[in-house]
Amino acid sequence: MNRKVIIIGSGPAGLTAATYAARANLKPLVFEGAQPGGQLTITTDVENYPGFPDGIMGPDLMDKFREQAKRFGAECHFKHVTKVDFDSNPFKVWVGDETYLSDSIIIATGATARLLGLDSEKELMGHGVSACATCDGFFFKDKKVFVVGGGDSAMEEANFLTKFASDVQIIHRRDELRASKIMQDRVIDNPKVNIQWNTTLENIEGNIDDGVSAVVLRDTISGDERTEKCDGVFLAIGHTPNTELFDNFLDLDNKKYICTKNNSTKTSVGGIFACGDVQDSIYRQAITAAGSGCMAAIDAEKYLESIESS
Amino acid sequence: MADNVVEFTDDNFDTEVLKSEVPVLVDFWAEWCGPCKMISPIVEEIAGDYNGKVKVGKVNVDFNQQIAMTYGIRGIPALLVFNSGTVANQIVGAVPKNHITEILDEVIK
Known about the structure:
The complex is a heterodimer of chains A (310) and B (109). Chain A is of the alpha/beta class. Chain A is built from seven helices and 19 strands.
């Protein structure tokens, strides 16, 4: 069956696109991917999404997004797209061996937490190394943990971890934070959190059975290395866009974000649209993602009208 | 919870998992864990697909900290495959269904 629109991704961008496309009677098919609901599903309180003056839990907000899209007939599948072909007409999307055809595609695959690239980090992921404090903080009651990063998400993770850990050390490579003032203040006022400035993480010691035992840190000014005992390492050093599948078909910028045309969600291929964090390295907010998801659905609707009338 | 997904606890873990006749897939999870909710429907599907060949169940780490500690769980979702009372393989984090079925097929082949 040839679909009118397939949406890849199910964060605020993908599900907003689904709501708008469904209301435009395009019967969108949404592939929710490896992280249904997107990055907000691994956060706790979302305090800056308009319409929720008391805040809302990230996973709850995304359940509401999905419910709203489904109410108008969007089909949401817990499936992960493994391959695409944007040179063919209609476009092709694969989920393993299954092939799907569509006249237009909306890409909303978002971004994934970046890792440092250390061998020890990869080996100990899930065994004391984590990129999700809300998932794993629970296992560090009365322990000492390190948080790597200097942005809002690092501050949020550090604060959250103090619910469990007795000692939270933030490692930051510079001498000032990138985080917003309100988030910085919360960390500075929290007696369980300490910031180690001008410091990078060089290695993580430990093993799969016993978890993390220590970190090797480097002072970026003196170059001196030191080892500090700890039980966990939480990474919050930014994100990389999930564009691997599209590299051969679409123009990407030097940081691998999808390039979109001015004031639209159009990509370098007609009929393929991109919205949310996968094309936004600047704002990266739930509300901006949702906004661009709406744009993508409207752009796709116009595109479909234009090919039908031609 | 689906009918063929068993609830494992600190109390029944020994009889239900360690002394099980067939291999057991154990999903360590908690209510507050977003990625756990994502793989929950996959785990339920697997329970249906492998009915009779693999026992599938869940451990809520909030209420069963002893087992979580025994098996060194430091991140969830954690999927452990038990065979004859020992851990045959494990996956930490939300992964696609085929990653889980691959390690199950390895154990039951």
